[in-house]
Amino acid sequence: MEQKKFEKITFTTILHQAREELEITTNEYCVADIIYHLSNNPKSKIQGWCYASKRKIGKFIGITKTSTLLIVKRLEKKGIIEKDEETKYLKTTEKWFNTVVIMKLKCIGKETMPSVKKLYHKGKETIPPSVKKVTASGKETIPNIYIDNNTYNNKDNNSIEKISFSLEDKELTELLYSLVKKNYPFLKDKTKKQLEVDYAEMNKLNKLDGFNYKQIEFIIKWATQDDFWKQNIRSVSKLRKQFNSLIIKAKGEHDKQNKNRVLIL
């Protein structure tokens, strides 16, 4: 049985870093990408599988049925796609997801959301006046916690876990709580001590988990508008815990709204 009406795939942009990691050719990447998107098409009659013929798959990128068959065999051998022996339907494996899809998801938001606002003077980044402090000699200083993501607050050298966060961590934490407060105005405000813990948690989302601030800002704004997630994401700890699920859900929503295009970031 062959699909009567296919999703129109108008272009494929290749993540060459992922392609090199998988040790596959450009055509092999394109075939695997087509199989991934067709098997994840929400309008497909057979969810989770690509049931397009090899001729149809090859036609998408301008190669013959024979070439497509050979590519499919190589991709199976490399563990990038798998085939149902009874139906002959295809789908990509966890290896493709972990190498290609996760890389795309980590890039989401790079071109769709503005960067966190910063102040500049004569081409140099500056710190808002409210952050600056003045010493007895009249010189302005910046608290250690704002100098760099890797700079710790050294007031208590004996503390087990030293707090570290940047200006971006503070701004994004406050953005999250301002949007949560807008949704649920009856919630109590965080104390200063609680906020500092949350700033540090936001820093871990960036430094330890590897998500950049544009991605985090995008997901904060998306999650606090989503009917389901806005009820669950009301703290930085919850945001960090669910971030992978949030970014996958946001990507899925984008694909549904842009069903005639393949989103490659």
Structure description:
This protein has 265 residues and is mostly helical. The protein folds into two domains: 92 residues, Winged helix-like DNA-binding domain superfamily/Winged helix DNA-binding domain (Arc Repressor Mutant, subunit A); 101 residues, no CATH class. Helices cover 49% and strands 6% of the residues. It has twelve helices and six strands. The chain has a two-stranded antiparallel ribbon. A two-stranded antiparallel ribbon has the order 3-4. A two-stranded antiparallel ribbon has the order 5-6. The longest helix is centred in the middle third of the chain and has 17 residues. The chain is elongated and about 65 Å long. The N terminus is likely disordered.
Layout of helices and strands:
Layout: H1 16-22, H2 26-39, H3 54-61, H4 65-77, E1 81-83, E2 90-92, H5 94-107, E3 119-121, E4 124-126, E5 133-134, E6 140-141, H6 144-147, H7 167-183, H8 192-207, H9 213-223, H10 229-232, H11 236-241, H12 243-257
Antiparallel strand pairs: 1-2, 3-4, 5-6
Q: What's a concise summary of this model?
A:
With 265 residues, the chain is mainly alpha-helical.
User: Overall pLDDT, averaged?
Assistant: 77
User: How many whole angstroms does the radius of gyration measure?
Assistant: 24 Å
Main β sheet profile: 2 strands, antiparallel
Task: Describe the strand arrangement of the main beta sheet, using strand numbers.
Answer: 1-2
Residue windows where pLDDT falls under 50 for at least 5 positions: 1-6, 111-122, 127-136, 139-161
